[in-house]
Amino acid sequence: MTLMLRNLSPALFGLTAVVLAGCGTGGAPTEDPSAPPGPTAAEPGDFEDLSGARIPESAESVEVVSAVGESGLQSYAATFTLPSEEEAAAFCASGDIGNYLPFPDDVAEEERERLLIGDAELVDPRGCSSMRSGENVDRSVVFSFPEDGRVRVWAVAEEFGR
C-alpha cells in the first residue's frame, strides 16, 4: 500500500528551512515571495470536504493542518483518536476511502514523514487509501492500536494533477 502526501511534506520542510536560516544570521528570516505558504491550522470540515470522509463525533484530540504546494494544489493532514476499531473501520467507509486492512510490515520512513507520523510507535498498524476515478484526490489513513484501547489516526487528503 503506497501512502502519499506530496504537497504537505515539502511545505513543512520549507518552513523549517526558513526558520533555521534566520537562526544563524542574527537577522530576520527572509522568505521567498514565490514560495507557497507553509502549513497552517485548518478546520476539520476542510479536511472532510476534500477527503469525503467524516471525522466521527467521538474523535478526540482532533488536529488538522493544511498546505498549498508549488502547483497550487491543496493538502490536509488530520490526526485524532477514536474509541474503537469499529469506529476506525467506519471512518474508512464514511469517505469510501478503501478497504480497512492490516499492513504487512511497519510503515516506511518516507510514508511516516508524509503522514506526519514521525517517530510514533505504531502498534498493529492498519490503514486504508484510495484515489477515485474521475477525481483528483488521494486519500490515505493509518491507524495504530496502543494498549490503552484508543485508536490513533493519521489521515491525509491531497489534490493532484488538476
List the defining traits of the structure above:
162 residues, alpha+beta, seven-stranded antiparallel β-sheet, disordered N terminus
Provide a quick synopsis of the model.
The protein is built from 4 helices and 7 strands.
Query: How far from one another are the termini?
Result: 23 Å
Order of strands, main sheet, comes to 1-2-3-7-6-5-4
- Count all strands and give the number: 7
Query: What structural class do helix, strand and pairing data support?
Result: alpha+beta
C-alpha-based Rg, rounded = 16 Å
Report on this model:
The chain is α+β, with helices and mostly antiparallel strands. Helices cover about 25% and strands about 30% of the residues. It is globular and about 40 Å long. The relative contact order is 0.22. The N terminus is likely disordered.
Summarize the topology:
Blueprint: H1 8-23, E1 40-41, H2 44-51, E2 60-68, E3 74-82, H3 85-94, E4 101-102, H4 109-114, E5 126-131, E6 137-144, E7 151-159
Antiparallel strand pairs: 1-2, 2-3, 3-7, 4-5, 5-6, 6-7
